[in-house]
Specification:
Layout (H helix, E strand, L loop, with lengths): L2 E6 L5 H10 L7 E8 L3 E8 L2 H4 L2 H6 L4 E7 L14 E3 L5 E9 L2 H10 L10 H14 L8 H14 L2 E9 L3 E6 L8 E7 L2 E7 L2 H6 L3 E5 L5 E5 L4 E4 L12 H6 L5 E2 L2 E2 H19 L7 E4 L5 H11 L2 E2 L3 E3 L12 H11 E3 L1 H4 L3 E6 L6 H12 L4 E6 L27 H8 L3 E4 L2 H8 L12 H4 L9 H11 L1 H19 L1
Parallel strand pairs: 16-17, 16-20, 20-21, 21-22
Antiparallel strand pairs: 1-4, 1-10, 2-3, 2-4, 5-6, 6-7, 7-8, 8-12, 9-10, 9-11, 12-13, 14-15, 18-19
Helix pairs in contact: 4-5, 5-6, 9-10, 9-15, 11-13
């Protein structure tokens, strides 16, 4: 999962891009990048591995001059945190195009082969974002006939949609022309459009989450629709066109469970309200399946489960307490690249308040259980703090299947729920009782009555892949390339190469 942003303004955009990436840091902690453009200074870029605050120093910000720009925070779904794959990516022909991408292409290998063999384009990395960039560049190149126009851009994006499959939300800067933003025809990955008055000029912004618009005081206009292309020219004029092919709006439901900030609104759905309703649905499940419970206190696993846990406690009529104190200088455990790093970070990240656990039957509430490593260690922490019994509840259903649309849980063997019953998972994590949300309860929680969304991408829970091109062979190949063992091997290889270069 990554975060993208693009701004066309009457004022310098460097600080705005920085601030937007900072509030979307939760979407990616491995690398960050910004590209800006102006007539006077041309194209300026800064990107590197690390958090936003570490990548951009004052000297970098001063060089990022221009009223047009895009930015990216990276969370890799393949490979490791390599500086060569920090975004935005750039290709010089035609015009000069920079691109930042959130998501994952399911036909990456096929596209890469065609680009090299038929389109005669060179690829420098294994990133599907570079593939997307070169597909866009090729489609624009074949349509160039004099001056670039919005219609040429829209036709190129339509052609890109016909070639690319998977989940993707993209912002691209075309040098001297403007910023292009588009979503895949299923609208799996989010993208929001905003505007702000600056004197007599209207400035526009696109971002992965509405919270980025809020912090820069842009008004949220609407979501970019599935397959839609939005073009903001350098003079501020806005154009858009819907995809000429078929669309099926199925946003990723895991955004609402875990990834998005609670103060964001995605596809007209409030993440905060969705999590409130997840707590209500989960409380109902507990009452049905565990009616004679002896729960003394409900304790959330900070931070994303707090909203749901509050509602669980309220509807069960038991106390809600903060039992874990979080070290806010440790990154999000789920999106750390390796199992060893995840295990190590839990103890550094959370510390239990003994008096909230001592001689009590506690219900721990988390947003989801993915690999189970964190859950097991947290239950152990609760027992060490003196809990009599430790029950565990997940606001999401069992994660049994790989996600192939941009979330780093592709290896089925790494998912604790894959091929196991609830009772088996309960034993593995050491809980006295384990309660999962039902899938239909989760869908009800996210989708409210007046929503235009009729279905979601629930593939990691249901095993149903909405793009229709995910085969067993594909999943096996993905697991071979993206499990933790493969990542460790690539990490050691990158270090070895770095040592050779340093000599």
């Amino acid at each position: 999962m990554c975060g993208v942003v693009g701004i066309v303004s009457a004022q310098p955009v460097n600080q705005g891009l920085y601030d937007a990436l900072t509030v979307m840091q939760h979407r990616g902690q491995d690398a960050a990048g910004i590209v800006t453009w102006s007539d006077e200074n041309g194209l300026k870029q800064r990107k590197a591995n690390g958090l936003v605050r570490d990548v951009f120093r004052s000297r970098h910000m001063l060089r990022l001059k221009g009223q047009v720009g895009i930015g990216h925070v990276r969370y890799p779904t393949a490979g490791g945190a390599k500086s060569s794959e920090a975004q935005p990516f750039y290709v010089n022909s035609p015009y000069g195009i920079c691109l930042a991408h959130n998501g994952n292409l399911t036909n990456h290998d096929e596209l890469a082969d065609l680009l090299i063999r038929e389109d005669r384009r060179h690829l420098s990395t294994n990133s599907d974002s570079e593939v997307l960039l070169n597909v866009l560049a090729h489609e624009l190149q074949t349509r160039v006939n004099g001056r670039l126009t919005p219609e040429i851009v829209f036709d190129a994006i339509d052609a890109l949609h016909r070639r690319c499959r998977g989940g993707y939300a993209v912002v691209a800067l075309i040098v001297g022309f403007g910023v292009v933003a588009f979503r895949d025809p299923n609208g799996i990955r989010p993208l929001v459009l905003g505007k702000r008055e600056q004197g007599d000029k209207v400035c526009h912004m696109v971002a992965s989450e509405s919270v980025a618009l809020d912090v820069l005081q842009f008004d949220r206009v609407r979501d970019v629709q599935p397959g839609e292309c939005v073009l903001i020219e350098n003079d501020g004029s806005l154009h858009s066109r819907e995809y000429s092919g078929g669309v099926r709006h199925t946003p990723c439901i895991f955004e609402y469970v875990y990834f998005a900030r609670p103060d964001s609104i995605l596809d007209e759905l409030s993440v905060y309200k969705a999590r409130l309703r997840m707590g209500e649905e989960l409380a109902g499940k507990i009452v049905r399946d565990f009616s004679q419970h002896d729960i003394d206190v409900v304790i959330p696993i900070p931070d994303t489960s707090r909203t749901s846990a509050l509602q669980v406690a309220y509807h069960l009529g038991v106390k809600y307490r903060e039992g874990f104190i979080k070290n806010r200088y440790i990154g999000r455990t789920f999106i750390m690249p390796g199992q060893a790093e995840r295990k190590k970070s839990v103890r550094q990240k959370l510390n239990a308040i003994d008096l909230e656990f001592r001689n009590k039957n506690v219900l721990l509430v988390d947003d989801s259980i993915v690999r189970g490593t964190t859950s097991k260690q947290i239950i152990k922490l609760a027992r060490e703090a003196g809990a009599r019994k430790v029950y565990f509840a997940s606001a999401a259903p069992p994660v049994r299947y790989p996600n192939v649309y941009g979330i780093d849980m592709p290896a089925a063997t790494e998912l604790i729920a894959n091929g196991r019953s609830v009772e088996e998972i309960e034993e593995l994590i050491g809980a006295d009782r384990l309660i999962y949300q039902d899938l239909h309860g989760l869908i009800r929680s996210v989708r409210h009555d007046n929503s235009m969304i009729t279905e979601f991408d629930t593939s990691c829970f249901s095993g149903e892949y909405i793009t229709g091109d995910v085969t067993e062979e594909y999943l096996h190949d993905l697991e071979e390339r993206r499990n933790d063992a493969a990542k460790r091997k690539r990490k050691h290889k990158v270090r070895a190469q770095g040592n050779v270069v340093s000599l």
